[in-house]
Write a structure and sequence with these properties.
Length: about 500
């Protein structure tokens, strides 16, 4: 997702950013290594930054030997807004930031170096796109037209080359990937899988945000860069490490989040052809008023937007937020959070009179799947269809299923019986995706992998014509099961009577 430039703002005109009720506290993450002589000044600037949000300053001393830690302790005793933590030995800037992330309790985080190169008075312009609901992350660009100290040509060129390479790999259009000023919503930052140790934090965070699908904005900032004589620590070898980090995050270690479900859904998003294959099999059963129960991040929802009414429901806060970002402006779409195991959460949809309930790869996560099927039956209009897609064949159960929180995989007979017990007539039942079952078995049983990667899904999508052909000839069980139940129309007549 490309970054978007924000028009230049006069900080003097923006000394007070209105506090959004969703964002009460700004966590300032400050790694420190031998910065004793600038430390008190930068702390004072941070704590006096002109914002209405509460400020939580987390200072992590990374094994300083110049008295920085003793000064940090004294300042923390003087001001309760300061949280102090020490690494006994120097571990690297990224390690210090990751420690600060673990300690933070705020709603938004900003990384702040302990030198005086970056000015906390510019927090208002950095926060505005997030507070306005336009962004998930904001980068402060040193090269977007604001005053800055003129320093090293080759250092600047290295920054621009790394930014260019990062943009090419991540499909972004940033002007300053290496900037210290990166502001990120806390709920996203805490779920990013960050592993770097040194100055490679900048390319790693940029890549992980891109892989997340975060809405990234850039705003211009001033920059008072230091010379090496004044204490600048980054060197040529760090540029080489940053280049390697870009390659590692994108191609060698693409798992960008600790949220397993979101990683899998993001991977499946890359298989658009596969998603269309599922819906093509089911199109004759869809009505015009569709409730997708357990919509996730909208991988299948995006293919259902032409229906007269599309209702999207999910339990996960983050998924609901993603759905609102993608589809919240459409008049024919309604989005709500809800728990499928609570019948009252499904009752809210009765007034919409859904003629189709579509639930793909959800009920295997639920212990009381029979209760959920009964709630679907009670919610759907008489004559409507309930379309269930689930993993097939318990013998294919692997560590992948464990990681995803699957209680079970289904046989055709088991799911048919449960849907009939809920009151549905069976309109259609079939297994599909035999090629996928081979890949699932190899990944989970033999290789013991716990995740599907985006690369796997891209290759499967490319092999989709082969997969469709093999459906007809492979004498093996398939990976997925579809069962379509119909709520008898006669029930409407009995209810009327």
């Amino acid at each position: 997702m490309p970054a978007t430039d924000l028009e230049s703002l006069d900080v003097g005109d923006r000394l007070s950013v209105s506090k959004n009720d969703d964002y009460q506290t700004l966590s300032v993450l400050m790694p420190v290594y031998n910065e004793r002589w600038t430390l008190r000044e930068i702390v004072n600037r941070v704590l006096s930054s002109p914002i209405e949000m509460e400020i939580e300053l987390i200072i992590v001393d990374d094994g300083s030997s110049d008295g920085s830690w003793e000064l940090i302790q004294r300042m923390a005793e003087e001001d309760s807004r300061i949280i102090a933590h020490q690494h006994e030995h120097n571990k690297g800037k990224a390690c210090a930031i990751r420690t600060a992330i673990e300690l933070m309790t705020g709603d938004i985080a900003v990384v702040q170096d302990a030198d005086l190169e970056y000015d906390p008075a510019e927090y208002p312009r950095l926060l505005e796109p997030i507070l306005d609901g336009r962004a998930d992350a904001v980068f402060g660009s040193r090269f977007a037209g604001h005053p800055r100290r003129v320093l090293y040509f080759w250092h600047t060129m290295a920054n621009k080359v790394l930014t260019l390479l990062s943009n090419m790999v991540n499909d972004l259009n940033l002007t300053d990937m290496e900037t210290c000023y990166k502001v990120v919503k806390a709920d996203i930052l805490k779920q990013l899988r960050l592993r770097s140790h040194t100055f490679t934090f900048e390319p790693e965070l940029t890549c992980r945000l891109s892989q997340w699908g975060a809405r990234i904005y850039e705003v211009p900032i001033s920059y008072a860069g230091r010379s090496y004589e004044e204490g600048k620590k980054i060197g040529p070898i760090d540029g080489v490490k940053a280049l390697w980090e870009i390659v590692r995050c994108k191609y060698l270690d693409p798992q960008f989040t600790t949220h397993s479900g979101f990683y899998i859904l993001t991977s499946v998003k890359r298989a658009n052809g596969y998603n269309r294959w599922i819906l093509d099999k089911l199109k004759s059963f869809f009505g015009q008023r569709v409730l997708e129960a357990g919509a996730g991040v909208g991988n299948l929802s995006t293919l259902l937007l032409k229906h007269e009414r599309l209702m999207l429901m999910d339990y996960d806060d983050m998924y609901v937020g993603k759905l609102k970002e993608r589809f919240g402006q459409r008049e024919n779409v309604r989005i709500a959070q809800g728990d499928l195991t609570k019948s009252c959460d499904l009752e809210q949809w009765k007034e919409e009179e859904p003629d189709t309930v579509f639930c793909s790869n959800v009920i295997e996560h639920i212990d009381d799947d029979e209760g959920v099927l009964q709630s679907f039956h009670d919610t759907i209009a008489p004559g409507g269809h309930c379309i269930i897609v689930v993993p097939a064949e318990q013998r294919l159960y692997t560590v992948l299923d464990e990681e995803l929180g699957h209680y079970r995989r289904y046989s055709k007979e088991e799911l048919i019986e449960k849907m009939q017990d809920a009151g549905f007539e069976i309109a259609h039942a079939e297994q599909f995706n035999k090629l996928g079952s081979i890949g699932w078995f190899v990944s989970g049983k033999i290789l013991r992998k716990r995740h599907l990667s985006p690369r796997q899904m891209i290759w499967f999508d490319r092999l989709l014509p082969v997969a469709k052909f093999l459906e007809k000839i492979l004498p093996i069980p398939a990976m997925s099961l579809i069962v379509v139940g119909r709520k008898p129309a006669a029930q409407a007549q009995r209810m009327a009577a």
